[in-house]
User: What shape does this take?
Amino acid sequence: MSGFFHYFSSHFESFRGEFWALFFGGIGSGIIYAMVAIGYTMVYGVLRLINFAHSEIFMIGGFSGFFVLKYGIGSSTPSGLSSVFFVILGILAGGIAGSLSAVVLERVAYRPLRKRGAPKIAYLISAIGASYFLINIAAKEFGRIGQSMVQPYTDHAVFTIFGAPIQMYTIIILIVSVLMFLALDRIVSATKLGRGIRAVAQDSETASLMGVNIDKTIAVTFLLGGFLGGVAGFLYAMNFGVLYSMGFTPALKAFTAAVLGGIGNLRGAVLGGLILGIVESLSVSFVNPAYIDVVAFAILILVLMFRPTGILGERLGRDA
Amino acid sequence: MKVRRTILKNRLNKTVAALATGALLLVAVPVAGFASAGAATKPVYVIGYEGPLTGPANQYGLNEVYGLQLAVNQWNANNLPFTLEVKQFDDQGSGTLSPAQAAAAVAVPNLVAVVGPAFSGATHAAQPTYEAAKMPIVTPSATAVGLATTGANNFFRMVYGDDVQGTADANFLLNVKKAKSITVIDDATFYGAGIAKVVADVAKKAKAKVVTTTLPQSTSCSAQASVAQFAAAATKIKNAKPDAVFYGGYACDYANLLPALSKAGYKGIVMSADGSYDAALMTQVNPVSAAKGAWLSAANCGSTGNLTGATAAAYEALSGIAPESALYDAQAYDAGNIIVAALKSIGVTALGTNTITQTRSAISAYLHANKFDGVTGKIAFQANGNLVGTGKGNIAIYQITGKDLPTKKTCY
Assistant: This one.
């Protein structure tokens, strides 16, 4: 019994010491999950489809940012304003490539099925097929070896909170994500475009009778989700480099986050992403880091057992 | 009656003998590489190479296959009584893919020996196939301890195993760097877990405080675990403040661990072994400055060094790879040479009449029974396939100082 207490008290000691560092690390990965989760949740909202090729939108965003910075920066070491410029350039490159590929994906892999009234399982197969197609094209074209990103700035700890170093990288993704989440929230809840998306999500037939252009609305949904996914890919690649298979695990986590928060629910996706990132990071204090993925998926199973519609519940078509 | 029975018996014996001879010829001619084709065409013998020729760790495979090819080219220009060919079997360094490559190799009728497999996990998985076919496998780089403890007599390696390398690494950390506490991480592969265990055991014996942990291979190494584990583990390590961290695994993930430790603010000594001595480490580590000061080891010092002089120049001309950073090029070159020495000693006549299994077994027997002078020094094998000797002075330790893989080594 005393051994048991000793185990806990010694783990609690180390937990106190590293809590904040793990917490902020978790926020960093949680934001990436959230940005990708939004893409899943939006597409699910309008099409009731899990776009499994979204992981490759993430990868394409990463590679686009990678190439733009590689040729833009070359061998120089940017600092100050030029760093800001290159980060924005990378974000735009990732976002634009992400949205374009998402729109193309919708046109090629999903719209033909929709026009023919294909069963849901056909969408799923099409999504997985598109995903494998893109992974293998990327592997062939970009090589199967990971490459590190040319750094647009010199990463360093800017300040510390409760002894935890906060990296420039964390600050950048925090700013970028908050801006994007706010903008998306406004678009979906306060613009005509957003009303269209919500209308299609709620009842696509009625929406079309009311004059909403279904094809256009779906394309816009992919465009917005693809933008966030592409930017997330770039931000992730700034830290971890690029690789043809880089999308697989983060996207699986993001899908988990979307379900955790309540699929179809934008704020749920953000909340789910953050919770997942923070909990899996903090779990390292108590279990071997190798169990980080086990913890992530155990959370999913637990939440679904007690709250099958996710933390915030499904909110298809209602205000974000 | 008795006479008739005797005649019948004699006839029967003759028929059996004729059939048997015919069968033998049928078997022997194709497998011996068209030995009976006469003086105009020499018989052809194939030496296989198995290793990663594509995939995240293909640099090892390229380093080695060119070493073998160089040896074969030189022998072919040397008026041998037979012609040699190299056939490549790409296992991507994976234990999942290697049994199929091994099966393909043993099925080649005039393939007499294999240089490789390059990786320990791949060797472990392929060995049952090779052993069943009596195929001699001479690996230039598979260092896991467990490969030489199976009792098989077809296994040979040109480098000292992880017992030697892991011990040298641990002693370097304990005695040279004066580390009193070490966190030992492994990547849950056959190779990584093996060398990490050696380091941990030696350090524990020396009364150092040892914490072991496993971070399984991530998506960067074409496996499943997420790269997020490195940042979390690094935070924990930073907090525990061990004097040193040893990583048993490959470059594709060492490239994730180094920046994670640097970002977490860990200031101690970080070291990995030959699995991470790969040019890909320096292209993947992000930013490169995160690798500065980190240590690496490899079993290529002293009598098991790299190619030098004219051989190195010929190697570079053939491969386009700088020989000083081409880990295990010399070992592959020597592996090719000793296989050819075995073929020469068996002789073209015996080769022509042997079955392929007999030839393969004869090569193994020859490698066990003889000593060789290679570019890597004196080569002789123990019964288990390990090199003879303690390996002292054969382990190179490198420190990363710039943007490229370090080539300046100290031998331990």
Remarks:
- Chain A has a mean pLDDT of 88.
- The longest strand of chain A covers residues 157-161.
